[in-house]
Specification:
Layout lengths: L3 H8 L10 H9 L11 H5 L3 H16 L7 H14 L12 E6 L5 H20 L12 E5 L6 H12 L9 H14 L4 E5 L9 H16 L3 E7 L20 H5 E5 L8 H17 L14 H8 L3 H17 L7 H6 L4 H9 L1
Parallel strand pairs: 1-4, 1-5, 2-3, 3-4
């Protein structure tokens, strides 16, 4: 039997956008928000058939696991830094633009910040200028390129060309790849290129030196702003281009790029505790449980911070699992005991255990 919740699941299923292709990125940019899901109380849950309850709980699992992006202090600050750097995006094509480096420890929302900013920029540009360039090419204001372990100069060019779907990506010589990438960027009037997972590059290795130099070369030839995203890039010597000692003063990357650090939430100060509580309140309002109550997250702000160390990635993992337990056990709300039952990710568990 097809239930109304099965119909909701069909229309609001988990998305699997491949942001590394222009089709996937375009789908992500223009994806409509999920249809709001009805909240049922205990009496209404009890009135459902077994199949209806199964479908409704599956729908709730998708809803609870996909909260909206919250405008945290970290996100607002990061947007402000990117906006400042983007001021140079208005320079004429023969002038160099600056770059942004979103740099932090894992699970602090770096990729979310980069992709949401880029999505907003993409939408604004298409609204103003349309889907086609004056020469009739598809307008792609943003290109998104995630790197992988051991990425070489050739790999970087291939990934960029594959984003655009260039037919010669697999046939061109190494020397041709860079020129083709520059042509794609110019033809599609791309203005932001997001390079994600840059920490996979070892900048002290020969391949890392080549990639670093190539990125500088692309910045010289492409009228775009690069947004680099990675884990602990300063420690990995990205800004120093792998140079040591006095030679680091000659690293162009350090002058051309602006570091945007993302910090975990802290509750030591009054302002920090207020920001953490505001985040929990926003997430609390999103959750679909039969017995929700004001404060079911904010009342446990300290416990949630202790278990996640203020890392938003660990927090969302914990809340996904807490909602699962609340539904599976019939508690239908989040309590201190239920929070203690949640198995957190390894990093959060290890650090909390030593605190």
């Amino acid at each position: 039997m097809t239930t109304r919740w099965a119909a909701w699941l069909a229309d609001n299923a988990q998305t699997r956008h491949n942001l590394a292709t222009k089709q996937g990125w375009d789908a992500f940019v223009h994806a409509a928000p999920r249809t709001p899901l009805e909240r049922l109380d205990r009496a209404q849950l009890a009135a459902l058939s077994a199949e209806e309850l199964e479908d409704y709980n599956d729908a709730r699992a998708i809803w609870n696991a996909n909260p909206p992006t919250v405008a945290t202090a970290q996100l607002t600050r990061a947007y402000g830094i990117v906006d400042q750097v983007m001021a140079s995006n208005h320079r004429d094509g023969d002038k160099l633009r600056g770059a942004v480096v979103i740099d932090a420890a894992p699970a602090l929302g770096k990729t979310t910040i980069a992709t949401r900013y880029a999505r907003d920029f993409h939408r604004k540009t298409i609204r103003r200028h349309g889907n086609r360039t004056p020469d009739g090419h598809q307008r792609l204001p943003v290109a998104y390129v995630p790197l992988s372990a051991g990425t070489t100069l050739k790999d970087l060019n291939l990934k960029l060309l594959r984003f655009y779907g260039h037919p010669a990506a697999t046939r061109a010589t190494r020397g041709q790849l860079g020129a083709l990438a520059v042509d794609c960027v110019a033809s599609c009037q791309t203005r932001i290129i997001v390079i994600d997972d840059l920490h996979f590059i070892d900048f002290k290795h020969r391949n890392g030196h080549e990639v670093s130099n190539h990125l500088k070369g692309l910045a010289n030839e492409m009228p775009v702003t690069f947004v680099y995203v990675g884990v602990r890039l300063r420690e990995k010597k990205f800004f120093d281009e792998g140079l040591l000692g006095p030679d680091t003063a000659y690293a162009q990357t350090s002058r051309r790029s602006t570091r945007c650090e993302i910090a975990p939430f802290t509750i030591i100060s009054t302002a920090g505790a207020r920001a953490w509580t505001a985040l929990l309140a926003a997430l609390e309002a999103h959750l679909l449980l039969a017995d929700p109550r004001p404060g079911m997250l904010t009342d446990h702000a300290r416990a949630l911070h202790r278990r996640t160390q203020g890392c938003i990635g660990s927090l969302t993992n914990l809340l996904d699992r807490a909602c699962y337990l609340a539904i599976a056990t019939g508690a239908e709300t989040i309590t201190a005991d239920l929070i203690d039952q949640v198995t957190t990710d390894n990093a959060a568990h290890t650090i909390a255990g030593t605190a």
